[in-house]
Amino acid sequence: MSIKRVAIVGCGIGRSHIVEGYVPHPDKFKVVAICDLNEERLREIGDEFDIAKRTTSFADVLGDESVDIVDICTPPGIHLEQVVAALAAGKHVICEKPLTGSLSGVDTIMEAEKTAKGTLMPIFQYRYGDGIEKAKRIIDAGIAGKPYMGSVETFWLRTPEYYSVPWRGKWTTELGGVLVTHALHLHDMLLHLMGPVSKVFGRVATRVNDIEVEDCASASLLMENGAFVSLSCTLGSHEQISRLRLHFENVTFESNHEPYSPGRDPWKIIVQNDDVQARIDAVIGNWQPVAPRFTTQMENFHTYLSGNGPLPVTTQDARRALELVTAIYQSSDTGRDVSLPIGSDSPKYADWRARTK
C-alpha cells in the first residue's frame, strides 16, 4: 500500500487531523504541506510536525503535483468552493463538517464528483470507536430487532470567548449554530445506527450567547422504520455530555457520555434475555479494539484508496445529516412537520438561512 501525501488546509482543527489521523499511520500518510492565512500558526504547526512546505495560498496547494489528498479544515463558509476546486484539480479530498451550507451546495458537490478523478470523504469521526462500532455490528446482524425509540443529547458549553473568533456565530461564515457545528456529530451517529428520517418537527432559539445563529434546539423525529426519536441540543450546559440512548426490541444501547468522543467504550448494551446475549457474544465475542475518531476514519480512507474496503463516509451521508438540519430549520420557521426527503422545491433547499413562512 502506498503512502498518501497530504496537504492540510486550515491549521485549527487541522492539527487534530495530524495528531489523531496521520501521525498514528506513518506507513499510510505523510503530511507534506500545510496552508493557513495565519503565518504564526503555520510556523508553529510546521515546526511541531517538521512539515517543510508552508503556504498561505490554496491555489499553491492545488497546483502541487506531489499532493495526493487535500484535507480541508477551513471555516464552513468556504468549504463548497474549496471542495469543488480541489476535485477539479484531480485531488482526493477530505472535508470537515459541515460539508456545505445547503442541500443545493451538496448537490453541486455531488455533480462535481461524477467527473472527478479523486474521491471526496466528508468527516464524521464520531462514528469510530469500540462502543458505536459494536452497536452497529449488532444492529446490522439483526439481533437488536425492531427499533422503538431513542434520545440524542448534545449538551455542550460555548462562552463569549469561543465566539471571539471572527467567523463563529455568524450565518455567512459558520452557516448555522449548534445544529450545524456541534450536534451534527451526534445526529450523524443516530442516522448511522437507526437509518433515515421520515418526518421532523423542530424548534431553534438563541438563548445562551449574543450571536446570530441558534445555540439551543430540539426536535421530534419519526424515523422511516417507525421509531420515535427526540433530539436536544444546547451550548449552555455547565456539565458537557454527549449521549445517545436507543431502544430496540431486544437491546437498549446507551453511549458513554464523553462530549467529544461518545463512540468510545464503555457503551451500555442492555439485553432482553440470555438468548439475545448469546447471539451478541457470537457476533462481538472476539472483538478487536478500534481506535476512536480520526485515527480509524483516516485509516479506513487509506484502505478504500488502496482498493481494499468501502468509502468510510460518503457525500450522501453528509447530505442526509444536512437534510435533517434543513428540516429542523424549516419546521421551526413554519411551526409544522416537515416530510423528508427534501427536494429542490423546498424554500430551504437553496439556502436554509432563508426565512420560511
Describe the structure.
- This protein is α/β, with parallel strands linked by helices.
- Helices cover about 35% and strands about 25% of the residues.
- It contains 12 helices and 14 strands.
- The chain has helices spanning about 15-20, 40-50, 60, 80-90, 105-115, 130-140, 170-175, 180, 185-195, 275-285, 295-305, 315-335; strands spanning about 5-10, 30-35, 55, 70, 90-95, 120, 145-155, 195-205, 215-225, 230-235, 235-250, 250-255, 270, 340.
- The strands form 2 sheets. It has an 8-stranded mixed sheet with strand order 13-12-11-7-10-9-8-14. Strands 3-2-1-4-5-6 form a 6-stranded parallel sheet, with helices on both faces.
- A hairpin with a 2-residue loop joins strand 11 and strand 12.
- Helix 4 packs parallel to helix 5.
- It is globular, with a radius of gyration of 20 Å.
- The termini are far apart.
- The model has no long low-confidence stretch (mean pLDDT about 95).
Strands ordered across the widest β-sheet: 13-12-11-7-10-9-8-14
Relative helix content: 25-40%
Helix-strand category: alpha/beta
What's the overall average pLDDT, rounded?
A: 97
Task: Describe the oligomeric state of these chains in a short phrase.
Answer: single chain
Total of helices:
12
The parts where pLDDT drops under 50 for at least 5 residues are none
Total number of beta strands: 14
Give the end-to-end Cα distance, rounded to a whole number of Å.
Answer: 54 Å
Radius of gyration: 20 Å
Shape: globular
* Element-by-element helix/strand order: EHEHEHEHEHEHEHHHEEEEEEHHHE
Sheet with the most strands, sense and barrel status:
8 strands, mixed
